[in-house]
Design brief:
Blueprint: E1 6-8, H1 20-33, E2 38-41, E3 46-47, E4 57-59, H2 79-91, E5 95-100, E6 104-105, E7 110-120, E8 123-127, E9 132-139, E10 159-165, E11 170-176, E12 202-204, H3 209-226, E13 230-233, H4 241-255, E14 260-263, H5 270-280
Parallel strand pairs: 1-2, 2-5, 5-13, 13-14
Antiparallel strand pairs: 3-4, 6-12, 7-8, 7-9, 7-11, 10-11, 10-12
Length: 285
């Protein structure tokens, strides 16, 4: 077995100069000489603004190509820079791994009116209000991309919850109501705070068939466009593990068993961590 070394090639406080991808491309030969075989790259997607580290993800189909959220580039550079960095890594026999943020979407383009109930932040299984309507940021139209690559638009029914009512200015955790709505099954997400499906922003509903199809459409486009060799999956404790295990399995079936996948799961309880690993089966690398 080859002894491999994976390096996280970013940290939270990098300069917001749009040159990180260029620095990585230039550094690739040196990294290879030092024995690095895999690089975990930061999120490459258009986020809430040009200084966003990447976890406030807005548009997965914009890798720093379109004028959205006041910027063309991301914090790390343009799409062309990103692709060049990936090519430089692969030319030096280093596998580029993409940081993939699927749990939520941020900075919607328009608000919508829909029914919710408020839940207890410390126990999301406990409803603390009767159903009422809010005006929430849930309509993503990606106007600056002009439907390039994908024409899907997101609406309130594609999400399980959100955290802000524009009409009243109130913050809270609002579970969206409707047919087949609700948090992920209790056994499929982390049990912290009762049910830790909801983390932040507009939380994707991985039970909705249109959401699942869009994620798969995006994944195929992304891997084939960029040539990345694997994923680091963000916030998997908050994502339906039934969806996640199927998604990882299908990515490996499509792109080969060497398509490297690892995920973020923060929990100090060894037993709970073991449970989530069993739920994912052999899907993770």
């Amino acid at each position: 077995m080859t002894n491999e070394t994976l390096m996280q090639y970013f940290e939270w406080y990098l300069p917001n100069d749009g040159k990180h991808w260029m620095r990585l491309a230039a550094d690739a030969p040196t990294l290879a000489q030092k024995g690095i075989t895999k690089i975990w790259m930061p999120p490459a997607f258009k986020a809430t603004h040009d200084g966003d580290v990447g976890y406030g993800v807005y548009d997965l189909f914009d890798l720093g190509e379109f004028d959205q959220k006041g910027t063309i580039r991301t914090k790390y550079g343009t799409k062309a820079d990103y692709l060049q960095a990936i090519s430089a890594l692969k030319a030096n026999h280093i596998a580029p791994l993409a940081d993939v943020v699927l749990n939520h979407k941020a900075a919607a383009d328009h608000t919508e009116d829909f029914s919710v109930v408020e839940v207890d932040p410390n126990d999301r299984t406990k409803v603390i209000s009767k159903p009422f309507n809010i005006e929430g940021w849930t309509n993503f139209t990606f106007d600056g991309r002009h439907k390039t690559y994908n024409d899907f638009e997101w609406h309130w029914y594609h999400f399980t919850g959100t955290d802000y009512d524009v009409r009243t200015g109130k913050n809270g955790i609002f579970q969206i109501q409707g047919d087949n709505k609700g948090w992920a099954n209790q056994d499929l997400v982390d049990g912290e705070n009762g049910n830790y499906d909801y983390l932040m922003y507009a939380d994707l509903d991985f039970k909705h068939p249109e959401v699942i199809k869009n994620i798969y459409d995006w994944a195929e486009w992304f891997v084939e466009t960029t040539g990345v060799c694997g994923f680091r999956l963000d916030a998997i404790k908050h994502i339906d593990s039934f969806f996640m295990s199927n998604f990882i399995r299908d990515m490996k079936e499509k792109y080969g068993k060497d398509f490297y996948v690892f995920g973020e799961f923060w929990n100090g309880d060894e037993k709970l961590t073991t449970i989530i690993l069993k739920r994912l089966g052999t899907a993770l690398t």
